[in-house]
Structure formats: structure tokens, C-alpha cells
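Consortium newsletter contribution from the modelling node. Members have asked for a concrete example of what our holo predictions look like. Here is one, prepared for the protoporphyrin IX containing FE complex that several groups have been discussing at recent meetings.
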Amino acid sequence: MLSTILGAVTLLYLGVALAFLAAGLWVSPALNRWARTLLAAALAAHTVAILGRWWESYRLALGNAALTHFSEKLRLVILQAPLSNFYESLVFFAWCLPFLGLITFRRYLRDYLGMVVALGACLLLAYVSLGGVDSRIKPLMPALKSNWLLIHVVTCFLGYAAFTLGFGVALLYLVREKRPRESLPPLPQLDRLLYRATIIGFLLLTIGILTGAVWAETAWGRYWSWDPKETWSLITWLVYATLLHARLVKGWQGRRIAWLAVLGFAAVLFTYFGVSFLLPGLHSYLT
Amino acid sequence: MTSIRLTVFLLLILAVVAVAGTVAVPDIYYRLWFLVPLGLLALNLLACLAEGLPQAIRKAARPFTGEMALSMPERGRFIWPADAAAAALAQEALGRELGRSRHEVIGEKEVIFYSRGRARPLGPYLVHLALVLILVGGIMGKFWGIEGRMLLQPDLDVSSFELEKPRKAVPLAFQVRLDRFQVFYYKEGGTPKEFRSDLRFFQDGEEKARVICRVNEPVTFGGYTFYQSSYGAMPQGSIILKASQGDKSWTLELPLRRWVDLPEGQGRIMAVRVEANLQGHGPAVQLGYRAGSEHPRVFWLLEKHPEMAEPLGSLRLALGPVKMQYYSVLQVKHDPGVWWVYGGFLLMLIGLYLAFFRPSQRWAVVLQRGKKDRWDGRLLGTSARGRETFVIHTERLLERLKKGAG
Ligand code: HEM
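And here is the predicted structure:
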């Protein structure tokens, strides 16, 4: 049932991406409005699918426990947030892109930028369903039973999504610089947008890393253990800190910042996918 | 020391060394390769703080006055009729769009002004200060912190724990007793749901505390924090092994990890490991078997299904009842640096918020009697960063002011 919804949502995102592309090619405000509405509808369905899985996961966990107090149930609801394995995190990652696009960047969400958002969400969901990612709901192992799980994962993935948007904008910048094109936003606007996406991502990633450290301290008694996932998130953080210094202190703009954003996004990808598959560590529950 | 080029260079070196750490050299973070650039970066940060923080504080503390407001660039003009309650109208417009404004009369000019984000210049320095706090906390943990493990068997008082490197016991000024250890499973043989140690702490022969320690729920006593880290099971007493061949049978007692001769020169056998519940099949013992010059063999023998073990020639093996006892493994830690680190975390978030999401912006409405006594109004403003919100507010404000005349 839920996978059917997600399948439909994947196709819908693809449709939205094409609509935005067409809007960009033929400079059509009406098509942009349509695409935005359609994107909101897809996000709503995506949200329903996530909530449905949350409910299912909660029901399964409740089967194992006899809870009567409201506070106990609430705690179980929080613990069972569908963010505890690779499948769930991918579905949430895909959700973050249109969410950020429609909430934080709605003023710029048109044409090619809209396409970047919708296409990103579509590709992530397509990977979920075609890549053979295990979608079973599994009981939580004790280390994952923490109130920090929710805020840690939510902030990390919203941060990743902001960096993904930044990456898309950086690509648009580099393309537009090579071949000026009417339908692409002007360079200064892309530059500012890239900066906004980066600071939002940086703040969220920082909160993600810090809450992860607090969680590790309560679970294992170590706020930092140089586990590969931790180390790679720090590397990612350092790359973006470099970008911000280059811009704030050295006044770099434009192409060089765009390339740094590309580098930062490569670090994000490795932190998320590379580490899970290539390097062993504490976070290996994700696979 | 404070050149930004050096900073970027050091950040990149740290990133590269960290990459090396995750793929090839696992403990590089405690070697000079990492520590030297990190130390330089800390010096760099401190120099930068010493240089810029006082100035940033002065800047943030300097009040915004009507005099200063007058020197800002102009953003638009409007005209109000002579009978308008001009200052009040301007204050209302600023209040609607931004917030409470102040009012000064300078010569013939009425100046109504508003500022926000004055603390912005502190942002980056708070972030840098936070990094220093985190580093200090980390160093305190390394030098004055201590971390080890404690193995607790039910009802045996323990008053020390094991350091890992160098391996030695650290005495505690109190005793810990495990009253009970429990593992709960979601399903028989499935994922564990919860490990739980019921602990009691004693000091000078008196019970001081009675607590439950679970994963993610550490407990603190006597300056140490105890984390439920793992557990194990060991057999209570020796393992009873029943061997039979045709109509002959023997009963052997196997102490853990000691070779025992099988009867009639059929080789030797050893209990290597015991599991309380091997993949959901109940108690099991891993056995090593060796006969003559044959290569030794290792296999599992289940209490409930002895027939599943591979046969040793015509010899049949079975287990007597295996009585298991759990033990609990706790991580024990004392780290005086943690609060510095947490303080750094908090400061960093505040600093990031100030630096990026509180742009410093100022507006002023200047009113002056003009021709025919009507009010000539000017809107002034500046913004360091946050251009977009500045432009939006300025446009809306101007619209309001123009409408203000009715
Ligand atoms: C990875 C963490 C960071 C490190 C290691 C770091 C380090 C440094 C260092 C050493 C400087 C040189 C100071 C100077 O040239 O006077 C500097 C400058 C600066 N940093 Fe950072 N920084 C970090 C994070 C940040 C963040 C997150 C921000 C954003 C708010 C920031 C904003 C600035 C600014 C605005 C300056 C220029 C300050 C000035 O010229 O007085 N830094 N940083």
C-alpha cells in the first residue's frame, strides 16, 4: 500500500521535473504555477506515506508492549519515527528536498531550480524502489531507543537536502556562466541562493553533529569516537566552513564558491552512501 | 598567525588527514599528523579572537543614535500634509513593519529610528570561542578523564574497574552490586529489545543508591558515570558432556577452555565458548575436538538438538543441562571536560544564529517642515548582509509611509 503510494509519488516528481523543465524552456509562468501545485500535491502524498509507515511501525511496536499511560505511548510514538534504517532515511531525505524547496526557497522555485528539486526527490525515491533497499520494518535495537534519534536524523537530512539544493544551484551557476541563457536566473541571484542554501545546510548539519555527539555520550559514554560516519560528517563540515570563510572573509563569489559547493556535496554523498557501504562502524545499522 | 589563507590551508590539511584516518590509519587523530595542524588552528583561532573580539564587543555595545541614523543613505521620499501627527504616524509605520522604534529631535528634524541585529558582529567570534571551548573540553577529557570497563556478576560486589590501555585495575571508593541482569527480546531469538542492570551502590557498608542502568540511560555515582555497554553469559559450574558409543556411555565434566581426554584414547575435547541462546535454539556449547595428528575441528553442540552436531565417527555427544548465568558489562567513565564541550555546543549554535540569521539592519524616518509647512519625509537605511530581507522591508515600509498621508 505504502510502496504503491511511493511509486506514484516517484512518477509524480518526475512529471513535476518535466513540467518545470518545460516552463524553463518556453518561459511559461502558468506552467510554473502548475508545476508548483503538483509538487505540493506530491509532497502531501509523500507525507502521507511517511506518516502511514510511522503508524504501522508504532502499531508493531505496541504489539510488544502493554502501555496504558499517555506519556508512555507518546514516547513510543517518538521512538518509532520512521528514521531508523537506510530505507526510511532515504525516503525522508527525498521528502526534505521538496519540503525545503516549497518552504524556504519558494520565492525561487521555478524553471530549472524547480526541476533540480523535483528531479532530486525522484531519483532518491527511484533508488529506494529499484535499488533493492530492504524496506521491512525492523524492531529497534536498544542503542537506537533515544529521544535524540528524531532530532539528530531530522536535522542531518534537512541539512543534506539544503546542500543538495546548493549543489543544484552551483551546477546551474556553472552552466549559465558557460552559456548564458534567458531562462536561467541571473548569476548574482544564483550566487546568493547558493549562499543561503549553504548557511541553512551548515546550521542544520551543525545541529545534527552536535545532537549526535550528545546522543553518543548518553549511549556509549563518548561524545566523539572517530567512527567513520562521524569523521566524514566532520570533513563535510570543514569543507563548508572553508566555503563560508572564503566568502565571508576573502570575499570570494561566483565560480569558485560554486566549485566548493560541488566539493562539499561530494563529501555529503560520501558521508551518506560511501561510509555506509565502504567503511565499517557504529552507524552500520543503516545498511 | 591570523591570516585567513593559513586558516583555510589548515582546515584543508585537517580534512585530508581525517580522510586518511577513515581509510587507512585508524588512530591518526592522536598522532602529530593531526595534532600539529589542530594545535596551529587553535592558536590561529585564539589570535583571531584576541584581535577581533574586543572590537566586536565594542561594536555591539555602541548604541544606535539619532545622530548616527542621519548619516545613513537615503532609500526613498514622501510628503505628508501639514496637519499630520507626523512622528506618531512614522512610529506606527515602523512598528507595523519592524518593531518598536525610538524618537529624537535633532535641530529641525524629527528622527524616528529602528535597528536590529546589533549583536551580529559577535556571531563569528562566539563560534570561534565555542570551538576553543570544545577543544579545551576534549583535552581535559584526554588528560584528566578516565574510562574503562566493569564486568558484574549477580550478587558479587565489585569495587574497581579495568582500564584498557594500559591494562590495569582502578580502585573505586565504593562498591557496585548487580542485583539482576535481564535481556528482553522482541521475539524469542530475535533482536534484543532492552538490556537492563539493576544496580546498588554501597559505601562504608551502607547502601547509598539503587538504580536501573539501561542502554541510553546511564547512571552516575561517586563522580563516575556507568553505561550499559554489553553483556555475556557464562555457565554456572562445569559443563556436563555425555558421550556414548554403542551401548557404552560416559559423563565428562568440561571446565571452560581446558582440554579434557575422551575415554579410550578417542582424542581430546574442549569447551571453547558457551551461548545462552544460539540463534534461538537455546543453550549451546562450542567445542574443539582433536584426535591424533588430525586437524582440530570446531563445532557447536546444542542442548536441545544434539543430533544437529556433526558426528565424531561413531561417538555420540550430548549436553547435560546447561545452567547459564548472565553477566553485565558496563562502561565506566569520568570526564571533567564534558561540560566544557556542551557549553561550546550551545555557544556555537547561538553564534551561528547571530552570524547568519540576524543580519544587522537599520532604518530611520526623517521628518522636516518643508514648503507650505507640509512634512517632507525621507526613509534612510543600511544593511550589512541580508540584502534581500532589507530590500523587501524597505519597499514595504516606503509604501506604508506614502499611504500614511491618506
Ligand atoms: C570549522 C570551524 C572554524 C574554524 C576552524 C575557524 C577559524 C577561523 C580563523 C582561524 C579565522 C581567522 C581569523 C582572522 O583572520 O583574524 C577565522 C575568521 C573568520 N571566521 Fe572562522 N572558523 C570556523 C568557523 C566559522 C564559522 C562557522 C563562521 C561563521 C559564522 C566563521 C566566521 C568567520 C569570520 C567572519 C571570520 C573573519 C573574522 C575577522 O576577520 O575578524 N568561522 N575563522
